[in-house]
Amino acid sequence: MDFIHLSNDEATAEIRINRGKVNALNEQVIEELAGCFERLAVDPQVRAVLLTADGPFFSFGFDIPEFLGYSKESFARFAKKFTGLYTNLFEYPKPVVAALNGHAIAGGCMLSLACDYRIMVSGKARISLNEITFGSSVFGSSAAMLKFIVGGRNAQAILYDGAMYSAEEALKLGMIDQVSTPDRLIDEARILAKRLGEIDPNAFTSVKALLRSPVAEEMRAKDTHSVQEFIEIWYSANTWQKLQTIQIYS
Questions:
Q1: Per-residue exposure over 82-97, b if at least 16 CB sit within 10 Å of its own CB, e if not
Q2: DSSP letters of 187-227?
Q3: pLDDT of residue 247
Q4: How many C-beta atoms lie closer than 10 Å to residue 221's C-beta?
Q5: Distance CA 111, CA 99 (A)
Q6: Each residue's pLDDT tens digit, 118-153
Q7: What distance in Å separates the CA atoms of residue 89 and residue 112, rounded to the nearest whole number?
Q8: Do 146 and 170 form a contact (C-beta atoms < 8 A)?
């Protein structure tokens, strides 16, 4: 794997995204993440997974400059892979803890929301579903997932405003579950992942499915139409013009 580093700390597997300074998501990153989670799901030695990244960003979200060179058909292929990844992660049979080491923006935020628990560093780091600020929509599945996590009123505020929230602000909204510091983040995430991994795996999988599988079914149903709507808005003249101005510094 070129952009995903996998290691094990006893029964906890640790997945790190490492793709330049901002860990932008492209098709290869999504494929590597999906393959990694698939293998860990059937590994009897792994009881929990910790998802984090290297650098000052958890993830900037989509690698927009790269996708500007995609046709609608190619971008639709990526979008289906991406929504499939976080929907499968949303009902993953094992506990998944996200350690947000820095900014988690747009697609990066969606990826973190699919996890069971989110710990985020305080300070300059921000979390946001800011698509509306550059003329984009979100996927139906991500809206349903957000509503499940933060409730309807907060989901509306988050999506309408497209604001960048600090860890403390995100905690109040329910977007994250815990605030940490850079020097303690990974240790605290490992402790939590270990504790969740000590729960009887059959019981955990059953309870998680009872809570999340109905929502995951709704997410998949919504995306049969919303992915295409998202793509049509993405390629609309106004949004396309704004996308041209977004730069990524690797």
A1: bbebbbbbbbbebbbb
A2: HHHHHHHHHHHTS-HHHHHHHHHHHHHHHHHHHHHHHHHHH
A3: 81
A4: 13
A5: 12
A6: 999 999 999 999 999 999 999 999 999 999 999 999
A7: 10
A8: no
Q: How far is CA 237 from CA 219, 232, 240, in A?
A: 28, 10, 5
Instruction: Quickly list H helices, 107-151.
Output: 107-113, 140-150
Superfamily of domain 4-183: 2-enoyl-CoA Hydratase; Chain A, domain 1 (3.90.226.10)
The encoded tokens of residue 111 equal 């990826």
- pLDDT, tens digit (0-9, with 9 covering 90-100), for 214-240: 999 999 999 999 999 999 999 999 999
Helix or strand run (H / E) with residue 233: helix 201-234
Asked if 1 contacts 229 with a C-beta cutoff of 8 angstroms, the reply is no
For the chain, the straight-line distance linking the first and the last C-alpha, in angstroms and rounded, comes to 19
Give the pLDDT of residue 249.
67
Q: What is the pTM of this model?
A: 0.96
Q: Pick from 13, 105, 29: which is nearest to 61 by CA?
A: 105
Query: Could you give the CA distance from residue 63 to residue 36 in angstroms, rounded to a whole number?
Result: 20
For residue 239, give the H/E element and its range. helix 237-243
Q: How confident is the model at residue 97 (pLDDT cuts 50, 70, 90)?
A: very high
Angstrom CA distances, 54 to 21, 92, 101, stand at 8, 23, 7
CA distance 121 to 167: 7
